[in-house]
Design brief:
Elements (H helix, E strand, L loop, with lengths): L35 E9 L3 E2 L8 E6 L3 E2 L5 E2 L4 E10 L8 E11 L5 E12 L12 E4 L40 E2 L5 E4 L2 E4 L5 E2 L4 E8 L2
Parallel strand pairs: 8-10
Antiparallel strand pairs: 1-3, 1-9, 1-14, 2-13, 3-6, 4-5, 6-7, 7-8, 7-12, 8-14, 11-12
């Protein structure tokens, strides 16, 4: 079985502008400034279904690989990222679509350390049909120095169905990376500014679905 090498990299601040299509939630006046930002892969460990969730419900996902924060702290694979449902709607009569929005506010690391963050879903991929690979990660401190990334083999989402109203496309050439945006390899699902929508009766992300989450780090 081929495994994708785990990548730890600090990207240039300028490079982070590639996330321009996605923005984290606006901060209130007087809120502390972010000390770093980045994007990394997570996996769904409990099915997320817009027909069963409601605004304010707690959501928890796991990091899909190990990576380092801008200060050098190692975040092990399987660390918990928690947040809340900002909106959840099943399609009912007269509605054009169903909807699900999740925002993240905590990253729990080993030894009980917890970071305050602001994060949204940047990209969604179907689950792999093999053991979790290490996946490229990008994190950088504000004003941090540039580091060179380590090349990795291509990641190809598998041809499999995920959720009640979404399925993978026949094009499996999409790469999962920190710069990925939107929904890749899944039909009937769209993502814009952190909001997932579907023309089906609900937005449903089954166990193992991968997401790229973009965060600002505060402490």
């Amino acid at each position: 079985m081929n495994r994708i090498g785990i990548v730890v990299l600090g990207a240039m601040l300028a490079a982070s502008l590639c996330y321009g299509q996605v923005s984290t939630p606006a901060l209130a006046p007087g809120a502390p400034a972010a000390i770093g930002h980045g994007a990394f892969p997570v996996k769904v460990v409990k099915t997320l279904d817009s027909s069963k969730l409601k605004e304010g419900d707690t959501v928890e996902v796991e990091t899909a690989g190990s990576f380092k924060l801008p200060d050098g702290t190692l975040v092990p694979k399987g660390s918990k990222l928690t947040g809340n449902v900002a909106s959840a709607k099943a399609r009912s009569k007269g509605d054009p679509e169903s909807q699900l929005t999740i925002t993240f506010d905590k990253l729990n690391i080993a030894n009980g350390r917890q970071l305050s963050i602001k994060g949204i879903v940047q990209a969604v991929f179907p689950p792999p049909d093999q053991a979790d690979p290490g996946i490229p990660v990008s994190t950088t401190a504000r004003g941090g120095d540039a580091h060179t990334s380590i090349p990795t083999p291509e990641y190809k989402p598998p041809d499999m169905k995920t959720g009640s109203n979404t399925s993978t496309s026949s094009n499996q050439g999409s790469n999962m990376s920190p710069t990925s945006v939107g929904v890749q390899g899944m039909h009937g699902l769209e993502l814009k500014d952190g909001v997932l929508t579907s023309n089906g009766k609900n937005v449903k992300l089954g166990d193992g679905v991968r997401m790229i989450v973009h965060i600002d780090i505060f402490s």
